[in-house]
Amino acid sequence: MQLSIVIPVYNVEKYISKCIESIIDQTNKQFELILVDDGSTDSSGEICDSYAKKNNFIKVYHIDNSGPGGARNYGVKKASGDYIFFVDSDDYIAREVVEILQCLNCTNKSDIIVVAEAIVPEEKQIIESLNVRDVVNGIEEYTNEQAIELLGYVKKMLSAPWGKMIKKDILINRPFPEKVIYEDYEEMYQIFELANKIVYVPAKLYYYVQRVGSIMHSQWNEQRYRLMEISKSFMNWTKKKHPDIYAAAVYRYFFSLNELCVFAMSEKGYVELTKEARVYARKIKGQLITDRNVKFLTKIRYMIMIYFPRMYKKIWEKGKRIIRKIKGST
């Protein structure tokens, strides 16, 4: 298997070295690394160039800013591998990732491999050795419909491209939307649809760095409404293509609405900003209420969210204060 690791890079001069070093340090060197500098205005591009000068398996491309989706698409086109593994430029990976991916591809011939993630605070670094045999023996295999259902319930299969090895042919057929947010959610279920077999690796091989200032931790803007539009599209698509797992898509709508509400809470017009999405949720709530895959307390929480938004905000803010106190005392 020829493997290309693609990393979109944008204004991450503080993090990019750790990311690249984790890839250089891989136990298996059978891969190429493609760094796509997406119009960075800091020294990220220069840092990438410095690594490329010292390592002939690293290729750097500088492009005009087109967002994470556009940078990934560019990297896929430039990749010589028949499989693409995505890493975000502020994250890093375990030393054994490439070795495990190569091993799994030889034995399973799957179209997509998804590795589990560990959420790591910005100031912390994980360094540990993994037993490759144990990791490979612990994998789970899914059909595309099963994987899409997990994606809907936000279990194991997340919509983000990072931590996923995907057959290049699939990515060529389903490029990511450019210059928009939530481009991954909009496209990932369509990517899964084109796969015959998807493998999930429960071992936490991908280290997701939780940092303030990333795109997904920024504040409210009008593009947040795209999340609900995409969620509706996912529901309509699932109802037509995979009606047996429609309930998972409905759950994903409520999950997305919660995210929208959290972002909107910082705004004075929070209730009005989320009104349309909450009214729509009331129309489909019956599907959620009767879904045995959703916990009872989660159903209660979401009912409060759509009917009593001010109360929901107070509960959420109180929960945040409690968490801060707990963290402060440890």
Task: Write a structural description.
The radius of gyration is 20 Å and the shape is globular. Helix content is 49%, strand content 17%. The chain folds into 2 domains: 3-215, Spore Coat Polysaccharide Biosynthesis Protein SpsA, Chain A; 219-329, no CATH class. The chain has 14 helices and 9 strands. The termini are far apart. Helix 13 (296-307) packs across helix 14 (309-329). With 330 residues, the chain is α/β, with parallel strands linked by helices.
Radius of gyration: 20 Å
In DSSP terms (H or I, runs of 4 or more residues), the helix count works out at: 14
Describe the global form: globular
Quickly name the level 1 CATH class of the largest domain. Alpha Beta
Task: Estimate the strand proportion.
Answer: 15-25%
- Biggest sheet details: 9 strands, mixed
- Percent of residues in helices: 40-55%
Low-confidence stretches: none
Please give the domain count: 2
Class from helix and strand fractions: alpha/beta
> Secondary-structure element sequence?
EHEHEHEEHEHEHEHHEHHHHHH
Distance between the termini: 46 Å
CATH architecture of the largest domain: Alpha-Beta Complex
Instruction: State the fourth-level CATH superfamily of the largest domain.
Output: Spore Coat Polysaccharide Biosynthesis Protein SpsA, Chain A
User: How many beta-strand elements?
Assistant: 9
